Each structure stands twice: as C-alpha cells, then as structure tokens.
Automatic annotation (TrEMBL):
GO molecular function terms attached to this record: metalloaminopeptidase activity; peptide binding; zinc ion binding
Native source species: Leptobacterium flavescens
One Gene Ontology biological process: peptide catabolic process
Annotated ranges, domain Peptidase M1 membrane alanine aminopeptidase: 414-585
Region (Disordered): 738-771
Keywords: Signal
Endpoints of the signal sequence: 1-21
Name used for this protein in its record: M1 family peptidase
Domain of life: Bacteria
Composition bias, Polar residues: 739-751
The keyword Signal belongs to this UniProt entry's keyword annotation: yes
GO annotation, cellular component aspect: cytoplasm; extracellular space; membrane
Pfam families: Peptidase_M1
Basic and acidic residues bias spans: 753-771
Length: 771
C-alpha cells in the first residue's frame, strides 16, 4: 500500500465523527457569516492605544491630568440649615490643548426647585409605596436646595461671565488657557441644606427630635471643577443622581466655621488642633496615636450627651489641609462621640477614626474603628499602602457614601440598644465598602459619571475579600455564624445567578452608563464583583490575578484610568488572554450554563466494526488493504460482545499487541498504561459565556478525579464539545462545576447520570397522595 493511501484511510477511520460534523456544517454554511468567535480579540470594542494610554494598559509617555486646587472659607448656619462658602480655585492646564472656557460642577442643583432630574423618569401607581418616597413625591413642596451663586470673579476681582446649564456651569475666561498655564478665580455661594433622611441625599443633615440637634454629613457642597481628559475632553455629562462623580486631583485648604460646641472632622490634616481641642482631648489624642489594638475615646458619650444640651451661640473654625485629593467632605454635630486608634500601614501610622451619635451605640463603639483599621490593612495588602494619614467612618442614618479620608455609614441599633445580625453585618460591610472607596475611586480615580462599575465593582470585589479576612482576623465577631465565616452579601458566584438568569429586558451589560441600567446594585456592584472573584479563584488563580490587580492599582493610583486600562493591564501582567472573559461578563448580558449531555462507553476490538465495514464496501477494499487499526466498539452496539468487557486493549486487539511487540522493549511495554474502559463524554453549553469546563469524574471504586479544561475548549464549537476518558476504572458518575464556582444558572444538567431531582410540584403531589 502506498503511503498516501495508507494516510488517507487512517484519517478516514480515525475521524469518522468528523464526517458527520462536516455534513451538518454543510447545511449551516449557506449565507456565510463574519467572525463571531467568542475568543476574537476586542479590537472593535477597545479604542486604539495612543501616546496617552498604551496598549499594555499603562499610562503612556504623553499621559497628563489636570490639577484643581481650592482655598475655601465655609460657614454652617445650624439654626437655619444653610451653608455659606467662598472659594478660590486655581486650575492648571496640563493638557496639550488650549481651553477656551472652564466647566464647573454644581451638583447641589440636582436639588434645585426646577431640577429636571425629577422629571426624566416614567411613573406609575404601585400597589404599595414607601412612606418616605410617597411623602416627598406627593405631599411636600419641592425643596429648594440648589446653589445660589453670588458671584464668579477673576483674580483681580472682576466679574467673570458664566452660564448655568442645570448642574454644570461654564465660566468664560477672558483669555484662552494655554497648555501649561494656570488660572485663578473665585466663587461665592450658599444653599439650603437638605434633610438627607427624608430626601435620600448623599449629603445633608439628620434631625433628632428628642434633643433638637442635627448631625451634618456635608459633601458635593462647593462648586467643583469638572475633569478634562484625553478620553472625554470635558466630562460635563449632567449629574442626574445615579452616575456619581468625576473629579481632578488637587490640594485643599479649607476653614470651616461651625457652632463652638460642635465636633468636626473631614478630609485633610487638622492644622489648628490646639485651637479646637481641649487639653483633655489633646491628651487622649496623643494616647490614641500609640494605641494599635483598640480605639481611644477623644470625646466620650457622656461628654457628647452634655454637649447635646448646650446650643452654644459662639463659633469655632476648624482648619483642614489636604494634598492630592479629588474631593472634600466633612461631618459636624454637637452629638458626636469620637474615637480613634493607630494602624500600621507599611512603615507609616494611619489613624482609624469614628464619629457617631449615641444612637449608634453599642454597635459603633464596638465595631466601627475596628472595621476601618481592618479595611486599610486588607486593601493595602492587595493594592498599595494607604497613602493618607487617616480614614474616618461617620455614622449617618441610611447613608453609605464615600469621600477622601471620610465616609458616611448606616447601621443603627434599636432604641433599647439591641440589634439584629442583619444590622450588625450590614454596618460592618458598609464601613468596609465605603472606607474601601478610598482606594477606588478616590485614589485610583476612575470616572464614576461614565462607569459606575469601575469603582463600585472593584470596591465590592475588594470588600468581599476584606470581609472574609475580617472573619478570619476576628473570629469572635463572627461567632454567631454557623460556619464561622463572614456572611458576605455579594461576591459568591451562587449569589449572582438569579440576576443573570432574569428577564433580559431588565438587564444591561456592565459596560453601560449608570443612568441607563435597570438594576444598578446588581449591574455595577454585584455582577462585576462576582466576575472578578471568579476570575481570581477559577480562571486565573490567585497568584496571577493578585499580581495583575496590584499592577493595575499601582499603575493608576493618583491617575484617571478607563475600563480598557484595567482590561489591558490584567492581561499584560498575567499572560492570560481574557478578551473572551471581558466580552462575556462585561460587554454582554449572557450567562453561564454548562452541562454534561451524553456519555458513551467503548471497548477495543480486533475486528472491523460496522462503520469501517461500510467504508470498505464503499471504496471496494478488503481488510487486507487496511493499515494496522484498533477498532472501538460501543457497548451495546451490534459489534459489541461481552468478551470485550473489562479487558485491556492488548488482550482484545491482536493488531495492537503486534504493534507494541514490534516497537517497544519489554521494559517499555511493562510501563504502558492498561486502560480497560473508554468513554466519549459530550459536554454542552447552553449559556453564552465560555468558562473553564470543571469536571469531576467519579469512579466505581470510590475514587475521584478533577479535570479543569481551559475555556478555550469552546473556541471551535460554542455549543458542544466531546472528551474521551480512557481509564482502568469504570466510571460511576460525572459532575460539572462541583463547587459551584462559575455562577452556572442551571445545575439540572450538571450531573451524569442525571440526578433524580424532584420538582416542588412533584413533592407536593406526593405529599397530598400520602406517599
Ligand atoms: Zn460604593
């Protein structure tokens, strides 16, 4: 037989299944198609790399960012709940572009009387409405909480023309601002402070009717520069309420005047501590700086309760100075209890701080500062050392909101001091989350207005890790849990399947603007956090993931990254092709569903089987024309007989035996494997997202083998793929994704033989019948 014929026949026989596949393909070939392969690179979705942002995901040689420095004098009128401010903004144009005008953000205008924000959503009458929402929608006159701009002046005191378009103000500077130049201008303003408990604002006050006091958490309170960048030009997309903030870095000097009996803390270093602290407070503060294991009270509950009654008419000015921050927030009240402790981050001491009214106790004195300190350590380990000197957690009812060095958090016990597990873990979780926002987006400064997931998703992912580490660091804190594990609300794959298998008309891809998504919590927090957790645990492994994630955080700390900078860096630092992962999880609303469809059992024989006989007949050849072949016959087929069962191929195939004898030494033959069972397993993938195929093979002798096939196994057939198992042991069962780590939405197809799962309805019927 000539070599060519020999080759042609081998190929034919060894791949009979290919013939069938080709027949099917022929039918589907009509019309053709473009490259829709799920493993295609994301060239069409990604922008072209350039001098500002490189193809590796790092800042490029021409990367720039603008700088906005603020000097502000702020005064709180506690009696009338008004906030007054005068600010000087110095704006540095580091871009190569000439700027003809400047855009300033007036976020408080979302609360102005004529805001369009309230009008842009459709409405309907629900069967039941929340009392707060009902009251503010239908009973109350619209609150007038927008900015009152008194003037905008240049550095010589001359009025500058400006135009306000809802939450954006354009300032027309007399001379275009050239590359490398600075411009200073000042704005005077005031506004009515809202009740954030009634109106669900990120900033405002809570009123305590029992003592007549207010606790203020104040943010977005001053006209702030918009971001100008190589990606968006001016980011002047209106603030509608969901899409949060995009802000340049800068230095702040802020003097805040409040009633003399208030306790205040905010972004930055307190530069006049001796003026605003009593001698006793100074002593306690010095002690707190050396207390690494537990917080020290700077203001006790007893002192706070006394202050609640004082209502001083005097004023006090707190002076704060912050370098390289993207925003500024502060909290002030005479109700505040204040505690703090030191935490070692790298070579440096950072202060973990809490401010809370007595209504937060006993929960807050127990857990707040502990959670702050833990968060700083956990996040620093996974990203970079926390660079600021303090992090403050302020208790504000219903709030969970973040600013540089300071954040507002919910978690209030009942009036008698009791609290549920839900309140306790909710409080610790929100503190971890909001303190964690210092890293994303306060330092890794992404554009929240455009991409909610870049800060919320990354932060919720890190929150999950920090929560699990909290449970390990403080076992006594999670002793009330059955499994002694921290009960994370988001992050576990099984927690996202309900959302991902939901009605497609109410799901948007993660890569959507936060104003346009249906379920913001699942879209920007839960799904990206879970995707990253799966990427870390199942797709990349901790070592590769952690290095790449850290690389992203370090490349972009104190800079403005885009989604592509993240996606590219994760590949760049790991050598794992992830385009398929980003496409499936971030650019689509598809879900994961992988199963086992069919298992066929084969044995080796010396005699040609029916398929081979058919080909011999078609081609007019005899057995003598065939090359040496091993024939695989399916158990139960007409070629099969019981004598083949449980034998090794050498026993049942003389051709194989001869081949081995001719080509292997006795020693080599002794070392060959002797599989007795051959299985062809068909796996199916009804879900769109390709994922690693994790298979547990269980054998009749009780042993188990786990094989993870890389996601690329789906690259040539997105719906179905087969694998052959050759084993000395008989297979008893197969389980797909046995640890439920891929967020598979339908596990009814995850086992062979199929688990006899009874539906609830069947169970109900049996119960009725009395079975
Ligand atoms: Zn958040």
């Amino acid at each position: 037989m000539n070599r060519l014929k020999y080759y042609a026949l081998s190929v034919l026989f060894l791949s009979a299944s290919v013939l069938v596949a080709q027949e099917q393909e022929k039918k589907e070939r009509e019309g053709g198609h473009i490259n829709n392969n799920r493993f295609k690179q994301l060239y069409e979705e990604f922008s072209t790399p350039n001098m500002f942002r490189t193809a590796s995901g790092a800042p490029g040689p021409a990367y720039y960012q603008q700088q906005a420095d603020y000097k502000m004098d702020i005064e709180l009128d506690d009696k009338n709940q008004k906030l007054y401010g005068e600010e000087v903004i110095t704006y540095t144009n580091n871009s190569p572009d000439v700027l003809e005008f400047l855009w300033v953000q007036l976020d408080q205008n979302v609360r102005s009387k004529d805001t369009k924000s309230a009008l842009r959503n459709g409405q309907s009458i629900p069967a039941a409405d929340q009392v707060g929402g009902f009251t503010s929608r239908y009973l109350k006159e619209p609150f007038d909480g927008g900015f009152n701009i008194q003037y905008v002046k240049d550095s010589n005191g001359r009025d500058l023309p400006y135009t306000i378009n809802q939450t954006m103000m354009r300032i027309d500077i007399p001379q275009p601002l050239k590359s490398g130049e600075k411009v200073s201008f000042s704005i005077k303003w005031w506004y009515n402070i809202n009740n954030h408990v009634q109106g669900r604002g990120r900033s405002g006050y809570e009123f305590f009717p029992e003592d007549g006091n207010r606790a203020y958490v104040i943010a977005q309170f001053f006209p702030r520069m918009a971001v100008y960048s190589d990606v968006e030009g001016w980011q002047n997309h209106q603030f509608w309420g969901n899409g949060e903030f995009a802000l340049p870095f800068g230095d702040y000097e802020v003097n805040i005047t409040v009633p003399a009996d208030h306790i205040l803390d905010g972004t930055g270093v307190l530069t006049n501590r001796k003026e605003v602290f009593s001698k006793e407070m100074m002593k306690r503060y010095e002690k707190a700086k050396r207390s690494y294991d537990k917080p020290v009270l700077i203001v006790t509950q007893e002192e706070a309760e006394k202050a609640e009654k004082s209502f001083s008419n005097k004023k006090k000015t707190w002076k704060l100075k912050a370098t390289n921050v993207r925003d500024f927030g502060f909290a002030t009240s005479r109700k505040f209890i204040w505690d703090m402790q030191a935490v070692k981050i790298g070579e440096k001491d950072v202060m973990a701080v809490s401010l809370y009214p007595k209504e937060g106790n006993p929960l807050w004195e127990e857990y707040s500062t502990k959670a702050v300190a833990h968060t700083l350590k956990s996040y620093s380990d996974h990203t970079f050392d926390y660079p600021y000197h303090k992090a403050i957690s302020v208790h504000a009812r219903n709030q969970g909101m973040e600013y540089p060095m300071i954040c507002w958090n919910y978690g209030r016990p009942n009036k008698d001091g009791t609290y549920s597990q839900r309140v306790k873990y909710g409080m610790i979780s929100v503190i971890i989350h909001e303190v964690g926002h210092n890293f994303f987006p306060m330092i890794v400064n992404s554009d929240e207005r455009q991409w909610g997931w870049m800060d919320e998703g990354l932060d919720t992912f890190m929150q999950y890790i920090a929560e699990q580490e909290f449970g390990e660091a403080f076992p006594e804190a999670v002793a009330d849990q059955e499994n002694k594990k921290y009960p994370s609300r988001r992050g576990e794959p099984s927690k996202i399947t309900r959302y991902m298998s939901g009605d497609q008309s109410f799901i948007s891809p993660i890569m959507s603007n936060p104003e346009n998504v249906y379920q913001l919590g699942a879209n920007a927090y839960g799904k990206p956090a879970t995707a990253l957790n799966i990427l870390r645990e199942t797709v990349m492994g901790r070592e590769l993931f952690d290095h790449a994630f850290k690389t992203y955080a370090q490349r972009w700390k104190f800079k403005h990254p885009t989604p592509e900078d993240f996606f590219r860096t994760m590949e760049d630092a790991s050598a794992v092709d992830l385009d398929w992962f980003w496409r499936g999880w971030f650019y689509s609303t598809e879900y994961v569903d992988i199963g086992v469809k069919e298992v066929k059992k084969f044995h080796v024989s010396s005699k040609p089987n029916q398929q081979v006989k058919q080909v011999m007949k078609q081609r007019g050849i005899t057995e003598a024309d065939l090359p040496p072949l091993v024939y695989l016959v399916e158990e139960g087929s007409e070629d099969y007989n019981e004598s083949l069962k449980g034998k090794s191929p050498v026993e049942t195939s003389t051709t194989l035996k001869d081949y081995l004898f001719d080509n292997f030494s006795a020693e080599e033959r002794a070392n060959l494997k002797t599989p007795k069972y051959f299985y062809e397993v068909t796996f199916e993938k009804p879900g769109g997202i390709p994922m690693p195929l994790i298979v547990e093979y269980n054998y009749k002798d009780g042993s188990t083998e786990r094989v993870t096939y890389p996601p690329e196994i789906w690259r040539k057939n997105d719906a179905e793929v087969k694998r052959v198992i050759a084993s000395e042991k008989e297979l008893a069962g197969i389980v797909i994704d046995p640890q439920q780590e891929t967020a598979d939405i339908d596990t009814s197809n995850n086992a062979w033989p199929k688990k006899e799962g009874k539906s609830d309805f069947d169970k109900f019927k049996e119960k009725v019948k009395g079975k």
